[in-house]
Design goal:
The protein is about 40% helix and about 15% strand. It is an alpha+beta fold. The protein has one domain. The longest helix has 19 residues, at about 100-115.
């Protein structure tokens, strides 16, 4: 993932996260509850691996691509994450979301990216 791609997907996620992508979303903490659905959408767009790390509240999902960790939802936590990079998969990440949330977030992210590339 290039720096431009990273910046674009970061902006797309920030603009797209809502109560429609996670019931835990809040205006003050937009990344809250978005890890599974975000890991799936990022995996769709960039491939790589879905990883997980056990936290006090349960499993936290994120992506690894080209040997680099991408955790677009780390900001939901007040403490630093000690990553264990436990291999995961789409099925486990999907268990953290539902079809409606997944379809909504993917559609919104793709629309955002399309708008940015057509400017």
């Amino acid at each position: 993932m290039t720096t431009d791609q990273f910046n674009t997907i970061t902006d797309a996620l920030l603009q797209s996260w809502s109560l429609r992508s996670s019931s835990k979303w809040t205006k003050d903490n937009p990344a809250m509850g978005q890890c599974g659905v975000t890991a799936l959408v990022v995996n769709d767009l960039f491939g790589g691996d879905i990883m997980k790390t056990k936290l006090p509240g349960g499993w936290h999902f994120y992506n690894v691509s080209g040997g680099k960790r991408y955790d677009f939802t780390a900001s939901q936590f007040n403490e630093d994450i000690i990553y264990t990079d436990t291999p995961s998969n789409r099925e486990e990440a999907y268990a953290d979301t539902n079809e409606g949330q997944y379809r909504y977030l993917k559609q919104e992210v793709l629309l955002y990216i399309d708008k940015q590339t057509s400017l």
